[in-house]
Design brief:
The complex is a heterodimer of chains A (207) and B (424).
Chain A (H helix, E strand, L loop, with lengths): L1 H6 L7 H5 L3 H6 L4 H24 L9 H23 L1 H7 L1 H4 L5 H9 L6 H31 L1 E2 L2 E2 L22 H19 L7
Antiparallel strand pairs in A: 1-2
Helix pairs in contact in A: 4-5, 4-6, 4-8, 4-9, 5-6, 8-9, 9-10
Chain B lengths: L7 H14 L9 H11 L18 H30 L9 H34 L7 H10 L7 H13 L15 H12 L1 H4 L14 H9 L2 H10 L6 H8 L2 H16 L10 H6 L11 H14 L4 H15 L6 H6 L3 H8 L10 H21 L7 H33 L2
Chain lengths: 207, 424
């Protein structure tokens, strides 16, 4: 059972392509791989620990004010992550700008807390949070790899496309500027939705 | 149905190899491909047994062929113009060079574009039909012809191939293939190139063997909007990383304002427009530009064919010109210049009238065409980033075409309901 708790969010119920949660940030932070990785890590940590904490508190929170309590916990964790990033990774923190703060409004977190953490024990909740964060991160990384590779010819800032391929150096190649623009992120995410849904066609929709 | 005698020979061969391709045959996975060629070379093998309901002899194939025929004048002139521009740029008077040498030069430049466009596009169409086990559709015949006509002749072939693949896969097949697409696939290919490789598409500097000339629209943009200069520097500096910094650097603000006043002062003088080719040259097409868009005369020939056969809607074309004329009042360039510059006529005749991506209602066609014309000139006049607005205007209105149809139908329903209520 625990294995499914961990594996399902990675593939079968992956947040972005299947549940359609957290799409806005997937478009915003995937121009380059590095910020996408950091964002994935941040979301994974916040989802994991907020689910853990709220699962521990689930019997004490009055039902009526549970959303407020959830927000408090998530906001605290997000501020922690934001401060750590500002202290140790200033450059990336600048690149991610508001999107770290906006993790609070990331639908994945609230969705998983409501749907999972309030009904399950702490450990499975923690695993569910981490797995959903990773499921989100996987999509982010794939989109970012495609966009950075085709849009700028680099990965993590290192040039991958050989220098002499470029027209400037007498070759034939040019980077595809379209991949840096948001519409292409939408198209790449759309293609991933297609792939996930095609793979899941039997297992998810027929259940 | 009896087949004409003279194609007995290919028929024999096809009948002979047919068992290999139909279900159960060795190459049955290529069935769609086989059927496509069979129906292309001969009439389709299957004939209806009971009464068939033919409303019109104009099937998809015939409509497509009419459009292709209508495009041929533009294509031929595009080839000639490519050669003409080449010899002019080389410093020779093109009139002195043998006509066929000029044409042959352009022919050799344009032919690879056609081959790549059809090769890649049809390849994908065949492959997809095969995967879906459907018949191969004729839809790409027109698109494949349109795409080489709306790109600069200097575009690298691999870029064209990528754009074609994008347009066919993302623009068309994902929505369900021919007849189901939301946007005009040929324009999508151009839009893809435009945003992916702006340096090759802006039309600021084009042409032949290192010698470059600006398209009339780029000259216009340069003359009226200083930001076009920024685009210029942008494209020339391929290595540029922070173009915002470059923009601030290359065009000081004071310089911008003095430039604007200068240009408007010169524009207000009556007569010809400074920095532009003569109207006749632009009408006949002896100016740099995308392959098929330069000659308004040839496009009008095509338009005549389309209108005579009833393939395209005259309402869209007319209202498109009307919208453009209205908007042109807001600028300093008279309308008869706008109509012959850039891709306006080509888009108006061949792109806006696409029956798949346009509205289906007759009133909708008026609205659709009018807004395309209006938006095109609006973008030309007031958006300094893009010298040409036709592509963007058509794509935007493609998006709204279903909405226009919906509004027209809803209005009609409302009117009739009122009438019923009035008559009790």
């Amino acid at each position: 059972m625990k294995k499914r708790t961990f594996l399902d969010p990675l593939f079968k119920t992956s947040p972005i392509p299947v549940l359609a949660l957290g799409i806005c940030s997937a478009l915003a932070v995937t121009v380059k791989l590095e910020p996408a990785l950091v964002m994935a890590l941040a979301v994974t940590l916040v989802t994991g620990f907020s689910e853990l904490i709220l699962s521990l508190l689930r019997h004490t929170i009055p039902n009526r004010i549970r959303i407020i309590v959830q927000l408090m916990v998530v906001a605290t964790l997000v501020i922690l992550v934001d401060q750590v990033l500002k202290a140790y990774a200033w450059e990336i923190s600048k690149q991610l700008s508001v999107f770290v703060g906006l993790i609070i409004t990331n639908c994945i977190i609230m969705g998983r807390i409501e749907a999972f953490a309030l009904k399950n024990k702490p450990l499975p909740s923690f695993i569910d949070g981490i797995a959903n964060g990773l499921g989100y991160g996987m999509v982010l990384v794939v989109v970012a790899v495609v966009r950075e590779l085709l849009g700028e010819g680099t990965l993590l800032g290192y040039s991958v496309v050989p220098e002499k391929w470029y027209v400037a150096a007498g070759g034939f190649y040019e980077n595809n500027g379209f991949f840096i623009l948001p519409p292409m992120a939408l198209i790449v995410v759309g293609l991933m939705v297609w792939i996930y849904n095609a793979k899941n066609a039997k297992s998810v929709w027929n259940n | 149905m009896r087949r004409p005698r003279n194609i007995k020979f290919p028929e024999k061969i096809l009948q002979k190899i047919k068992p290999v391709f139909i279900q159960g045959g060795r190459l049955s996975f290529l069935q769609s491909t086989f059927e496509a060629f069979e129906s292309f070379l001969l009439v389709p093998g299957r004939v209806t047994k009971k009464g068939s309901h033919i409303r019109d002899c104009n099937d998809l194939k015939r409509v497509m062929i009419v459009v292709v025929v209508a495009l041929i004048p533009s294509l031929l002139f595009g080839m000639y113009n490519t050669g003409w521009q080449h010899y002019t740029a080389m410093g020779t008077q093109a009139a002195q060079v043998d006509f066929f040498r000029v044409f042959w030069y352009g022919f050799l430049k344009v032919l690879p574009l056609l081959i790549v466009s059809y090769g890649v596009g049809l390849g994908i169409e065949f492959a997809i039909a095969q995967i879906r086990r459907q018949e191969v559709n004729e839809g790409y015949l027109v698109t494949g012809m349109l795409i080489p006509l709306i790109v600069p002749v200097t575009i690298p072939l691999w870029m064209l191939a990528v754009a074609v693949a994008f347009a066919v896969l993302i623009g068309k097949e994902i929505f369900g293939g021919t007849g189901m697409n939301i946007w005009n696939p040929a324009l999508l290919a151009r839009a893809f190139l435009f945003f992916s490789y702006p340096g090759y598409m802006t039309g600021d500097t084009i042409w032949v063997d290192g010698v470059s000339g600006a398209t009339p629209l780029a000259q216009l943009a340069e003359a009226t909007t200083p930001l076009a200069q920024v685009t210029n520097t942008l494209t020339q500096a391929a290595e540029s990383t922070s173009w915002l910094g470059r923009m601030a650097e290359s065009v000081g603000l004071t310089e911008v304002f003095s430039h604007i006043t200068e240009v408007f002062a010169s524009l207000s003088q009556a007569g010809t427009i400074p920095g532009l080719p003569s109207w006749t040259d632009m009408f006949l097409g002896f100016v740099p530009g995308s392959v098929g868009e330069t000659s308004v005369l040839c496009i009008l020939l095509g338009a005549a064919i389309l209108l005579f056969t009833g393939v395209a809607s005259w309402k869209v074309m007319l209202s498109c010109v009307a919208g453009a004329s209205l908007m042109a009042l807001a600028g300093n360039i008279p309308i008869h210049y706008h109509l012959v510059m850039g891709g306006f006529t080509f888009g108006c005749v061949f792109m806006a009238t696409d029956p798949v991506t346009g509205p289906q209602t007759e009133t909708g066609k008026w609205i659709f065409g009018f807004l395309i014309g209006l938006l095109t000139i609006l973008i030309r006049l007031f958006n300094p980033g893009y010298p040409e607005g036709m592509m963007l205007a058509v794509l935007l209105m493609n998006t709204f075409a279903p909405l226009i149809d919906h509004a027209v139908v809803a209005a009609n329903v409302r009117r009739r309901k009122k009438r019923i209520a009035a008559h009790g």
